[in-house]
Amino acid sequence: MYLYVIKRILATIPVMVIVALFVFLMLRLAPGDPAAVIAGDYATAEDVERIRAQLGLNDPILVQMGKWLAQLARGDLGTAIFSKLPVTTLIGQRLEPTLLLALSTITFTVLVAVPLGTLAAYKAGSWIDRLVMLFSVAGFSVPVFVLGYILIYVLSMQLKILPVQGYKSPFEYGLWQFARHMILPTLTLSVIYIALIARMTRASVQEVLQEDYVRTARAKGQSEFKILMRHALRNAAVPIVTVIGLGIALMIGGVVVTESVFNIPGLGRLVLDAVLARDYPVIQGLILFFSFVYILINLLIDLSYTLFDPRIKY
Amino acid sequence: MSNLDQETLMADAVLSQKEDPSLLTVMVRNRAIFWGGILLSLFALIAIFGPFFTVDPVALSPMTRLRPPSAAIWFGSDFLGRDVFARVIYGARISLVVGLAVAVISVIIGLFLGLVAGYVRPLDAVIMRTMDGLMSIPAILLAIALISLSGATLGTVIIAIMIPEIPRVVRLVRAVVLTVREEPYVEAAIAAGTRLPMILSRHILPNTIAPLIVQATYVCASAMLTESILGFLGAGIPPEIPSWGNIMSEGRTYFQISPWIIFFPGVALALTVLAVNIVGDGLRDTLDPRIARKM
Amino acid sequence: MSVQDSKPVLEITGLTVRLPEGADREFAIEDVSLSVARGEVVCVVGESGSGKSVTAFTVMGLIPKKDLVPVAGSILLQGEDLLKKSDRQMRALRGEKMAMVFQEPMTALNPVIKVGDQIAELLEIHTNMSGSARKKRVIEAMDDVSLPDPKTMYNSYPHQLSGGQRQRIMIAMALALEPGLLIADEPTTALDVTTQAEVLALIKDIQRRHGMGVMFITHDFGVVADIADRVVVMQNGKVVEQGSRDEILRNPTHPYTKMLIGSVPSLTPPDRPEPEVAEIALEAHHLNKTYGSRGFLTKGRVVHAAQDVELIVRRGETLGVVGESGSGKSTVARCIVRLIDPTSGDITIDGANIATMPERELRPYRKEIQIVFQDPYRSLNPRRTVGQSIVEGPMNYGLGAAEALARAEELMRVVGLAPEALDRFPHQFSGGQRQRICIARALAMEPKVLIADEAVSALDVSVQSQVLRLLHDVRERFDLAMLFITHDLRVAAQICDRIMVMQHGVVVEEGRTAEVYANPQHPYTQSLLAAAPGREMDFAQFA
């Protein structure tokens, strides 16, 4: 068991290294000189050369690569060009809103999507099923920001029941203010995620309902509701949980957009600000940070399979 | 003497299966594909021919700025007085081109890599770990970074959106290859001395086509969404080109007074993506019920 | 036979179940009447498509209601008509008054719930017992089906048990509430022959002790001979004949029953003349195949799928390789065809050792060894015509398209199919026909060695005997050396000149078929032969 956990943790290292190398190469292989871009349109050749030296771009590529990996191994994601602050510090400053938004989104999504998908599978072919599937297809089709603006237009501008934009930290303004400002972003970000998980839940539960052991349960005289709860959901848990993990990638993309629409000062905004300012170390550092978070969450999910399925033994 | 699920129960009673109806019949009979296809063809026609019939989408008209929709200017005008209707019509081109290009290219590259990973053992681990790595980078972040590094043009946007889509295609193709190569008919062909290129093209490749078509529609839908998001964030196609994302991005500042600048392109985009997704779902249900579960 | 009540536990009268529109026939079963008395085992026998399973599932109320609709007749369970019951009433009856045991014990049990709890679920549904009372009753039921150490096994998950143990759990579950009727749907078909014998004995024993009526669905006349009191024969949804076991097996009147029983291969090998010593076509020495999981940080766990296997096949001779699942018999076949690479050892054909030959050098030898697989539905590429499948191999070796086609047409005649059918696709053929096509495809290569890997195991008994005869004929006609892999001792008795018995990857006994069957030396061979169902019955008399 412990051996397996260690092995799994070690197995994520090559993937993380690949991500790091990819991000590194992306910067080097992209057309155009990052130093020139950073220096701006009015820079002199000396300015550019100074920045090149500062970024270590004059070293041989393998040396640069080695330095980069060594730096990462120490937990150092680099230093911002403009604020001169370590990227880790910047992330620390902006983490709270993003983390809270992500947590409320995941909670809301799971609470809505899993029952919805289960219901659709149970009533397969009925109007409820079709409605859920229609919602799911539609959820995949509306861009996050359009949805955000529609919600703002209806709930904030017309009905005036929720604030338009902004973020209020629960530690400063209390839970009520926090929640009022969190409702719209959470709803916006959840829709595509709910669409994904409801769909997967429906498919998994429907598949399990075709299994022989469900027929055995019927042969015992078990009621359909209990078959659903006791037999189907437990067996469908692994694929559902897997998709919740894979969907994190989708959500991270959504966070950038949602934070932009609702003017939330989180990591998503940090990304956009860095892109607009062409602050490469920050862009690099944030991409790595998000990727590592994604890899770690999926590692945890992998390890959680034992809780759902006794056949998976480590 | 297989498991007696409901399907075999039916088979037990039904002696021999009927002849398969042709693919076309099935597709026309499927309502999702039919209506989605009609909607999509309509958008395609509008995208191709529409711009010939509208006013110039980039013509400035400082006198008529931020006008609400009316009989004369159907979708209203934006902050530079440009006609939103003409811009939305023109934007359809960009969206469809990006969607189509990303779908086709990523499927071709993914197919190649997937076949290699599925059939050349030593390369499997290398390719798949690389794909794992690529998949763990959130697609939108990756695209934003790629574009901001290489400069925004239609081409770089297409490449930037395509790269994160490739791993999904590779995984799908590899999964199909690994399943099919165990089929007895493939083993029989190996025993009959069929060489690897023939095994791939005759016996394995045809099995990847149905799932790939389905996957391509999903990639197309997701690419159109990503393109609009990139445009919206100001990190996509150059702002002078009226793509849907760009129109909406420019409309942000005026959203509280002129919501139509975001509303109309948003609806157009949602409908287009919806049509593609509906066709994808229909194809998935008819082409291959087995992959229906995977997505 | 125990004393029978006058009133039957189950009485089906004129039962007709309609198929959905667009099916090949209107009714899944038509005008089926049969009864099961207390303390009696009634076997319902038939081939696939006979409607035997539909009958069983209709009684249990487990048929998909949208597709299969009972339209006439009645099903009386202890006097109550099941077709008139509501869903809720049926649920109350299922498990309490009638219970069912399924074919595949692995999939019939929920993989994520402890087996004890799965039995307890039944008690929870139908009784008011307390948790501890339930557990006590479950352990009694497990004890009743001779499961070892029920207290510990209560907490096991299905994957931790053997196939036979899993089926015992299913039986314990079925018996926990002492229902009057037990329906067993091919309960031993998925089991190895030795396990099958144990489970059959258990069902018989339990049925006697509890005096219940058993409706036993099977396709296997050997099983019928062992367990039935009465037999119902079904064909195409109708009952064609029923009677006591001895009447049906010894004196069938309906031509279909006669044909079915006549098709069952006899366990007694026919007298074969000592063959003259022909040229050796294929030999293997010290053949080994090990699967090992050597890995980073993992302890290497090595499985010896085949160990030091020695075999020689001569032209014009059939060597049978028999064994249960996991014996390594298919591994040997796949090594010889080089679908998998042997770990070590020699495989010699035409004087060349092909065991470790690289693919490039192997090519000329591939055509000498051809194989026919078990599953006729997966053995032909569904997207290619039968003709394309047959000519593929010869054309790989340079035969022109016209000659290849001519050869394919001739071979279609050889295997008993019309040459015109070459343009058709596999789905237009039945299982038996597809297996014939696979044989034609193998023969098109003009091989020296033909390997039949469970090639008749998936076929109905009447089709099976035809394909067996075909295999025998082509072996004679083309002077082939045949390697016949099978788990079925009856089939092996009829077609093999010599047989090799494998267990856990090792050959435990080898010899002339008649001698091995008459006088088995190894204890494992003895137990295999002793376990063969219906061994005291000679079916071949109607052939």
Short description:
The complex is a heterotrimer of chains A (314), B (295) and C (543). By secondary structure, chain A is an all-alpha fold. Chain A has helices at 2-29, 34-39, 45-55, 61-73, 87-122, 127-141, 144-158, 170-209, 212-219, 224-262, 267-277, 280-308.
Tell me about this structure.
The complex is a heterotrimer of chains A (314), B (295) and C (543). With 314 residues, chain A is mainly alpha-helical. Chain A has helices at residues 2-29, 34-39, 45-55, 61-73, 87-122, 127-141, 144-158, 170-209, 212-219, 224-262, 267-277, 280-308. The termini of chain A are close together. Chain B is mostly helical and 295 residues long. Chain B has helices spanning 6-13, 23-29, 31-49, 84-119, 121-135, 139-150, 154-180, 184-191, 196-232, 244-251, 260-287, 289-292. With 543 residues, chain C is α/β, with parallel strands linked by helices. Chain C has 20 helices and 20 strands. Chain C has helices at residues 52-60, 87-93, 105-108, 115-126, 131-144, 150-153, 163-175, 193-210, 221-227, 245-250, 255-263, 329-336, 359-366, 386-396, 401-414, 431-443, 461-478, 489-495, 513-518, 523-531, and strands at 8-18, 27-37, 41-45, 69-77, 80-81, 98-101, 181-185, 213-218, 230-235, 238-244, 280-292, 302-314, 318-322, 344-349, 352-353, 369-372, 449-453, 481-486, 498-503, 506-512. Chain C has a 6-stranded mixed sheet with strand order 6-7-8-3-9-10, with helices on both faces. Chain C has a 6-stranded mixed sheet with strand order 16-17-18-13-19-20, with helices on both faces. A 4-stranded antiparallel sheet of chain C has the order 2-1-4-5, with helices on one face. The two termini of chain C are 30 Å apart.
Tell me the number of helical segments of chain C per DSSP (H or I, 4 or more residues long): 20
- The whole-angstrom Rg of chain C is 26 Å
Sheet with the most strands of chain C? 6 strands, mixed
Tell me the strand order in the biggest sheet of chain C. Answer: 6-7-8-3-9-10
The greatest interface here is: A-B, 57 and 51 residues
What is the string of helix and strand elements of chain A? HHHHHHHHHHHH
The biggest sheet of chain A, with number of strands, parallel, antiparallel or mixed sense and barrel status, is:
none
Q: What integer is the average pLDDT of chain A? A: 87
Q: Which bin fits the share of residues in helices of chain C?
A: 25-40%
Radius of gyration of chain A equals 24 Å
Q: How many H/I helices of chain A?
A: 12
Low-confidence stretches of chain A: none
How much helical structure, as a percent, in the residues of chain A? Answer: over 70%
The fraction of residues in strands of chain A falls at under 5%
Counting DSSP E segments of at least 2 residues, the number of strands of chain C comes to 20
Distance between the terminal alpha carbons of chain C, to the nearest Å? 30 Å
Shape of chain C: globular
Which percent band covers the strand fraction of chain C?
Answer: 15-25%
Q: Distance N terminus to C terminus of chain A?
A: 4 Å
Oligomer: heterotrimer
- Shape category of chain A: globular
